[in-house]
């Protein structure tokens, strides 16, 4: 009974979050990132021995990586790694027993139809395959080889007036199953013809908060190291070793990046 009341309070928290996204309506992807990180900067919900606390941070630039999408190309593709990193921890009697994370690429549309155009295929390839890549911004450079075990690790958030009331989350793997030939293209259009099979934001975020989805950071050291690196970029870890040197490219459109951490705690006798 106490757990059900606790979940209801979290749902009310999410309802307030979605009201923030809709009033006024989102203007672009960066607006979605800023509002999301702003809302979850410091929140708390508790009842009957259960508690949820949140913290977040936002930076006005995006981590950039180099990787090879089509091997015949002489130069690597250079793309942003994502827009939002969700990290969740589940603590029982102050001990962390679960820790999971997903990285989100947001896509915005304001058309009359539920159509998200010009999804960059190289960026989609990164979210789908996670090939060996080198983070080139901020410095110092670091190389990573990730092997996700969870399908939700690389996901998309479709946002905007035509996402109706909530952002719509979809994994890159499920998108690829519907578009199995896109990797040879430069861009593609993603249409949402049926709502069935989509994860609306309340469902997705509830699962994330309770550590039911996302890559298991306690068993996947390469992704855990990469997640820790992204957290240090936004100063979510105390006294991070090393310093990051941002070198913005004036030709690039300014974009942001956010990290949001949920901590779910349960105190048992």
Question: What does this 3D model show about the protein?
Answer:
By secondary structure, this protein is an alpha+beta fold. The protein has one domain (2-238, 245-266). Helix content is 26%, strand content 33%. The chain contains 6 helices and 15 strands. The strands form 3 sheets. Strands 1, 2, 5, 6, 10, 11, 13, 14 and 15 form a 9-stranded mixed β-sheet that branches. A 4-stranded antiparallel β-sheet has the order 4-3-8-9, covered by helices on one side. The longest helix is centred in the first third of the chain and has 21 residues, at 2-22. It is globular and about 60 Å long.
In DSSP terms, counting alpha (H) and pi (I) runs of 4 or more, how many helices? Answer: 6
Q: How much strand content do the residues show?
A: 25-35%
Q: Got a strand count?
A: 15
Largest sheet: 9 strands, mixed
Helix content: 25-40%
Q: Report low-confidence residues grouped into runs of 5 or more.
A: none
Radius of gyration: 18 Å
Q: What's the rounded overall pLDDT mean? A: 88
* Straight-line N-to-C gap: 17 Å
- Based on helices, strands and strand pairing, what is the structural class? alpha+beta
**Count of discrete structural domains:** 1
The dominant shape is globular
Order of SSEs: HHEEEEEEEHEEEEHEEHEHE
């Amino acid at each position: 009974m106490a757990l059900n009341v606790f979940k209801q309070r979290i749902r009310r928290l999410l309802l307030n979050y979605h009201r923030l996204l809709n009033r006024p309506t989102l203007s672009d992807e960066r607006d979605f990132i800023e509002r999301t990180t702003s809302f979850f900067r410091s929140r708390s919900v508790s009842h009957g021995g259960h508690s949820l606390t949140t913290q977040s941070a936002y930076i006005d630039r995006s981590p950039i990586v180099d990787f090879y999408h089509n091997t015949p190309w002489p130069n690597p593709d250079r793309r942003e790694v994502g827009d939002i990193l969700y990290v969740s921890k589940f603590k029982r009697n102050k001990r962390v027993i679960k820790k999971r994370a997903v990285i989100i690429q947001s896509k915005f549309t304001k058309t009359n139809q539920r159509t998200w155009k010009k999804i960059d295929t190289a960026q989609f390839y990164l979210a789908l395959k996670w090939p060996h890549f080198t983070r080139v911004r901020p410095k110092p450079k670091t190389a990573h080889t990730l092997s996700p075990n969870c399908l939700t690790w690389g996901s998309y958030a479709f946002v905007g007036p035509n996402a109706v009331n909530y952002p719509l989350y979809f994994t890159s793997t499920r998108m690829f199953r519907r578009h199995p030939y896109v990797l040879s293209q430069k861009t593609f259009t993603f249409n949402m013809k049926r709502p069935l099979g989509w994860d609306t934001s309340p469902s997705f975020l509830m699962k994330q908060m309770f550590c039911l989805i996302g890559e298991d950071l306690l068993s996947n050291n390469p992704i855990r190291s990469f997640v820790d690196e992204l957290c240090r970029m936004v100063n979510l870890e105390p006294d991070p070793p090393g310093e990051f040197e941002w070198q913005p490219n004036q030709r690039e459109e300014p974009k942001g990046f956010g990290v949001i951490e949920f901590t779910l705690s349960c105190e048992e006798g």
